[in-house]
C-alpha cells in the first residue's frame, strides 16, 4: 500500500510539474519579471506556450522595455512571432528608432520581417537591377544596370510596396531617360544623368522603402534598333512592290489570254463566213448570175495567188513567223 501511494504521488507530482512550468517560473522570478504561477497555469489553459511568452518577456525586461505579458500573449494568440517582435523592439531602442509595440506587432502580423526592417533602417540594403534596355533618339539601344541603395521606412511598412515595385519604377525611369537622349553617346559620356533624373522623380512614394541613392553600375551598347526597323520597313516595301508587280503581271496575262480568245473567236467567224462562199457560188451558178468560165477563171486566180505565196515563203523564211504573229 505504501509503494502504491508513492507511485501515485510520483505520478501526480510529475503531472503537476509538466503542467505547471515551475522551472520557467523560477527563471522569471530570478530575472526580476513579476509573473505568478497561476498566470502560467492560465496560459496553459488558454493553449499558450508559456515559454514562447516568458522568455521574450525576460529578454524585454533586461533590455528595459515596457511590455506586459498580456501584450505578448495576445500577439502570440493572433499568430505573431513574439520573439522576433521583442528582438526588433530591442534593436530599434538601441538604434534610437521610435517604434512602439503596437506598430511592431502590426508589421509582424502583416507578414513582414520586422527585425529585418529595423536592421535595414540602420544598415541600408543595396538592390541590383538586371540590365535594362532603352533606345535613344538616334536608334541605338543602350543597356544599363543600376544599384539602388534603400532604407526601410518603418511608418510605411504596413501597406507599402516592396522591392519589386522599386526595381520596376527605377527600370521605367532608366528607359525614359535613355529614350529622351538625343544620342546614345550622351548617355555613355555621362551615365550619372540617368541616376540624377531617376532619383529626382520620387520613385519611393507609396513604398516601404526610402531610396538613398541610385548608382549606374554598368552601361553597354545593344543593337541598332533604328537601322533594323528601317531594314524591316524596306523589306516590307519591297514585298508590297513585288506583290503589286505580280498583280499587274497577272492582269496582263489575263488580258493577253482574253485577246487570244477574241482572236480565236474572230477566226471562227471568218471560217464560218468562208464556208458560205461555196454555197454562194453554187447559188450564183444555179441562178445564172455567173458562168462556168467565170468560176474557172476565179479558181485560176486563186491558184496563181497561192503559188506566189508559196514562192515568197521559200525566198523569205521570216515571213512565216510574221504571218504566225
Give unreliable regions as ranges: none
Number of strands: 4
Instruction: Tally the helices.
Output: 14
Instruction: Describe the main β-sheet briefly.
Output: 4 strands, antiparallel
Mind telling me the C-alpha Rg?
52 Å
Determine the strand fraction and express it as a percent band: 5-15%
Helix coverage percent of residues?
Answer: 55-70%
**What class would the helix/strand composition place it in?**
alpha+beta
Order of helices and strands: HHHHHHHHEEEHHHEHHH
CA-to-CA gap between the ends?
Answer: 140 Å
On the 0 to 100 scale, the average pLDDT is 82
Organism: Salinicoccus roseus
Function: Found in functional membrane microdomains (FMM) that may be equivalent to eukaryotic membrane rafts FMMs are highly dynamic and increase in number as cells age. Flotillins are thought to be important factors in membrane fluidity.
Protein name: Flotillin-like protein FloA
InterPro entries: FloA
Question: What distinguishing features does this structure have?
Answer:
alpha+beta; single chain; 4 strands; 14 helices; Flotillin-like protein FloA
Structure description:
Keywords: Cell membrane, Membrane, Transmembrane, Transmembrane helix. The protein has helices at residues 2-19, 22-30, 37-45, 50-63, 69-77, 82-94, 101-109, 114-122, 163-179, 184-189, 192-199, 225-287, 292-315, 318-324, and strands spanning 125-128, 132-135, 140-152, 209-224. Among the domains are: 17-122, no CATH class; 125-224, Band 7 domain (Tetrahydropterin Synthase, Chain A, 2-Layer Sandwich). A hairpin with a 4-residue loop joins strand 2 (132-135) and strand 3. It is 66% helix and 11% strand. The chain is of the alpha+beta class. The N and C termini lie far apart (140 Å). Strands 1, 2, 3 and 4 form a 4-stranded antiparallel β-sheet that branches. It contains 14 helices and 4 strands.
Amino acid at each position: 500500500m505504501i509503494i502504491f501511494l508513492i507511485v501515485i504521488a510520483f505520478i501526480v507530482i510529475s503531472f503537476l510539474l509538466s503542467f505547471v512550468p515551475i522551472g520557467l517560473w523560477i527563471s522569471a522570478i530570478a530575472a526580476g519579471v513579476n509573473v505568478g504561477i497561476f498566470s502560467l497555469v492560465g496560459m496553459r489553459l488558454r493553449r499558450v506556450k508559456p515559454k514562447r511568452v516568458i522568455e521574450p518577456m525576460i529578454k524585454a525586461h533586461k533590455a528595459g522595455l515596457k511590455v506586459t505579458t498580456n501584450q505578448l500573449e495576445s500577439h502570440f494568440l493572433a499568430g505573431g512571432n513574439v520573439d522576433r517582435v521583442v528582438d526588433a523592439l530591442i534593436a530599434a531602442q538601441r538604434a534610437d528608432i521610435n517604434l512602439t509595440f503596437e506598430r511592431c506587432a502590426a508589421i509582424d502580423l502583416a507578414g513582414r520581417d520586422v527585425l529585418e526592417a529595423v536592421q535595414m533602417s540602420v544598415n541600408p540594403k543595396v538592390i541590383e537591377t538586371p540590365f535594362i534596355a532603352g533606345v535613344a533618339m538616334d536608334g541605338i539601344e543602350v543597356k544599363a544596370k543600376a544599384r539602388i541603395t534603400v532604407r526601410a521606412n518603418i511608418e510605411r511598412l504596413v501597406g507599402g510596396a516592396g522591392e519589386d515595385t522599386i526595381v520596376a519604377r527605377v527600370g521605367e525611369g532608366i528607359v525614359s531617360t535613355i529614350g529622351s537622349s538625343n544620342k546614345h553617346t550622351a548617355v555613355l559620356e555621362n551615365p550619372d544623368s540617368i541616376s540624377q533624373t531617376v532619383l529626382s522623380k520620387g520613385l519611393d512614394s507609396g513604398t516601404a522603402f526610402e531610396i538613398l541613392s541610385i548608382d549606374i553600375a554598368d552601361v553597354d551598347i545593344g543593337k541598332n534598333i533604328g537601322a533594323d526597323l528601317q531594314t524591316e520597313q524596306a523589306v516590307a516595301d519591297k514585298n508590297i512592290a513585288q506583290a503589286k508587280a505580280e498583280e499587274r503581271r497577272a492582269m496582263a496575262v489575263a488580258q493577253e489570254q482574253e485577246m487570244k480568245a477574241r482572236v480565236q473567236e474572230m477566226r471562227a467567224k471568218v471560217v464560218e463566213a468562208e464556208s458560205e462562199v461555196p454555197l454562194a457560188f453554187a447559188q450564183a451558178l444555179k441562178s445564172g448570175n455567173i458562168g462556168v468560165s467565170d468560176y474557172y477563171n476565179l479558181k485560176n486566180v486563186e491558184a496563181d495567188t497561192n503559188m506566189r505565196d508559196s514562192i515568197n515563203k521559200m525566198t523569205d523564211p521570216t515571213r512565216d513567223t510574221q504571218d504566225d504573229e
